[in-house]
From TrEMBL:
CDD domains (UniProt xref): HAD_cN-II
Residues of the signal peptide: 1-21
Xref: Gene3D superfamilies: HAD superfamily/HAD-like
Gene Ontology MF term list: 5'-nucleotidase activity; metal ion binding
Species annotation: Arachis hypogaea (Peanut)
Pfam families per UniProt: 5_nucleotid
Ranges in a coiled coil: 528-593
UniProt keywords, alphabetically: Coiled coil, Hydrolase, Magnesium, Metal-binding, Signal
Protein's UniProt name: 5'-nucleotidase domain-containing protein
Length: 660
């Protein structure tokens, strides 16, 4: 949102209410002000001029206590809202109020001197529009000169014009609902351990011999490090190895359990083969979702336990069997309801609060787009989580349905990725929100119910009828939303396989991948830019020295120099070889430090050495857009045209790329 001001003096109200700060403090971390222009344009989040209105009750006066005509003499026509305030009431509720509707911008800017994040750290709370609706704020760089913190930016792989999108859909778990790994993944791990020490759970769900009974006495003493595993890894089920590969599927980092493999072992196992391995199922398992981190960690613990305690696990239980049992145990933990019951009791402990989600949904709906939710979670759990995210959990979270006003269609129990196949014959049932009762439908259309059953959709305001379903397939969804072309749908999810790959590859939907790890990744990238320049220099030095060595060796071998010349060339060759080794060691050490700065075992999420990682390659292939949080959509116009940067091939970098 932009405010155009023509004040000749600084206006300051009492600090308890509104502060308009001008200029830069003496020890500011921000760059000096830009030169004035004939029509200065000022961003509310710009460091040159900050507007703050605190959330606490105001004791002296507040702009919100004045009507528009009372404020007119003060601001007159010299204050202009350029964009971001809707002239019409929200499509769902004209008087709807939502938690944090004006707190859309990043609260954690990066170093302002670097020119990446120029938002002020303070929050902004503007008066409501004349019709009582909360204003929506977005920034679209560089149109209005208000630059979004790079950690909150939406990155584009393929051009996407939002004007062509008629429906925006969302996954729930790890997309709208960002779980806290330190509590949620630890809960999943402990639940898995507990189930495998529960004889009733073993008998009821698996039968003997189909769980981790062979190490149950020791499991309770194990602990979980939620920071250790990352997405994008590959588990070698047969060998008990955990791998990180580049985009060409070359193994760059490998561990056996928690023990790092030497370069020789790594190359001997995965490099010296006549036929390239595909590294896919059934011999390998992909860790491509945050739900799988606890599973990978437990597998590594079992591998180490088997290796370090020969005889305690029978010979018939190999690494592949252990992975199968881990997978089954984790599935049980998610399936038996105990995990979700714990989250439902205290959502705040396990889910990050994001006050920008509701304003984002309101903004999309006001722009005329349909919104829908497709989740594998069932209705009871979905309702509790969405109530928490929408700020309705102060009431009984299981009996409030106010959040339904933000969607046109909600589909629970969707069984993705099978949901994305039209040939999937799953029935589509209607859901009665108050009871969770399932009702038969005719491809989404209501059917007469036998008896006195009333299929009434309920929302608190009763003026926005959102349809809630369970099951079905994508053809049902297209019909419910009157979708004419799959390219009119943008779907936002976190699972590269279950959400993004299938919806993109099978349907041709436009896709946005949520990568929560991206915030830290981008932060560290910015802090490491000098180290990366050093690495580039050392690489070029190695190339230069090796070229000189090759030239000298060629001269010694084929040009037959006389004795003195030969001795001189040999001495020069020895010096160059020593210099090459010194540069190689310096480069290796700098590369190791950079690797560990991102993540000690696995390094940068989207890189493996100098190549994009396999995970990054999948992001490039299947995600039209990607960002750290789904609510970052609120920082951009709903009609924005997302454009990628220009692609470069290697031969172009030295010609075109050097000038960028």
């Amino acid at each position: 949102m932009l405010v155009q001001l023509h004040f000749l003096a600084v206006i300051a109200f009492a600090p308890e209410t509104l502060v308009l700060q001008n200029l830069i403090p003496s020890q500011s971390r921000f760059p000096p002000p830009r030169p004035p222009s004939s029509s200065p344009c000022l961003c509310l989040f710009n460091n040159h001029f900050a507007m703050r209105i605190p959330k606490k009750p105001l004791s002296l006066f507040s702009l919100s206590t004045f009507s528009s005509y009372q404020l007119a003499p003060l601001f007159s026509s010299r204050l202009r809202f350029s964009s971001g305030i809707s002239a019409k009431p929200p499509r769902s509720l004209a008087n709807a109020t939502s938690r944090g509707a004006n707190h859309l911008h990043s609260r954690h800017p990066m170093d302002g001197n670097n020119g990446i994040g120029v938002h002020d750290q303070s929050l902004v709370d503007l008066p409501a529009a004349g019709n009582g609706a909360k204003p929506h704020v977005w920034s679209s760089f560089p149109e209005h000169g208000c630059k979004t913190d790079i950690r909150k930016q939406i990155f584009c792989n393929r051009s996407l014009n939002m004007k062509n999108i008629v429906a925006v859909g969302f996954d729930m778990d790890y997309t709208l609902a960002q779980y806290k790994p330190e509590t949620f993944e630890s809960l999943a791990y402990q639940g898995t351990i507990k189930n495998n020490n529960d004889e009733n759970a073993v008998g009821d769900h698996f039968g003997k011999g189909f769980c981790l009974f062979y190490c149950s006495p020791w499991l309770l003493n194990w602990s979980f490090d939620w920071k250790y595993m990352v997405r994008g890894l590959v588990l070698d089920k047969k060998r008990g190895n955990i791998l990180k590969m580049d985009r060409h599927k070359y193994v760059k980092v490998a561990y056996h359990g928690f023990k790092e493999l030497s370069k020789e072992d790594k190359v001997g196992t995965y490099g010296n083969t006549l036929v390239r391995d595909s590294f896919d199922e059934p011999d390998y398992a992909l860790i491509d979702t945050l739900f799988s981190l606890a599973e990978a960690y437990l597998f590594a613990q079992l591998v180490d336990f088997k290796d370090d305690n020969p005889g305690k696990i029978q010979e018939s239980v190999d690494y592949a069997r252990m992975y199968k049992d881990v997978r089954a145990a984790v599935d049980l933990c998610h399936r038996d309801g105990t995990l979700k019951q714990m989250v439902a009791k205290d959502p705040k402990r396990y889910i990050n609060e994001d006050p920008s989600i509701v304003p984002m949904l309101e903004m999309l709906r006001e722009s005329g787009r349909a919104t829908f939710l497709v989740t594998n979670s069932l209705w009871d759990y979905t309702n509790i989580v969405m109530n928490f995210l929408s700020g309705s959990s102060e009431v009984d979270g299981s009996k409030s349905f106010a959040w339904l006003q933000y969607f046109d269609v909600v589909i629970t129990g969707s069984a993705k990725p099978g949901f994305f196949h039209e040939e999937n014959r799953a029935n589509l049932f209607g859901v009665v929100p108050e009871t969770g009762m399932l009702l038969n439908t005719d491809n989404g259309s209501p059917m007469p119910q036998v008896g006195n059953i009333s299929a009434r959709l309920f929302t608190e305001q009763k003026n926005h009828a959102c349809q809630v379903f369970q099951g079905g397939n994508v053809a049902h969804l297209h019909k419910l939303l009157s979708i004419e072309s799959s390219s009119q749908v943008l779907y936002v999810g976190d699972h590269i396989y279950g959400d993004i790959l299938r919806s993109k590859k099978v349907l041709g939907w436009r896709t946005m991948l949520v990568i929560p790890e991206l915030e830290k990744e981008v932060q560290l990238l910015w802090e490491s830019r000098d180290t990366r320049k050093e690495l580039q220099f050392l690489r070029s030095e190695r190339d230069r020295i090796e070229d000189e060595i090759h030239h000298l060796k060629w001269s010694l071998k084929f040009k037959n120099p006389d004795g003195d010349a030969k001795q001189k060339l040999s001495t020069e060759l020895e010096k160059l070889e020593l210099e090459r080794e010194s540069v190689r060691l310096s480069h290796q050490e700098a590369q190791r430090k950079l690797h560990q700065k991102f993540h000690e075992p696995w390094g940068q999420l989207l890189k493996t050495g100098y190549q994009n990682s396999r995970f990054a390659h999948q992001v490039e292939r299947f995600a039209c857009l990607y960002s750290s949080q789904v609510s970052n959509l609120a920082l951009y116009s709903p009609d924005k045209y997302y454009r990628p940067s220009e692609d470069f091939m290697q031969h172009e970098f030295g010609i075109v790329g050097s000038g960028l």
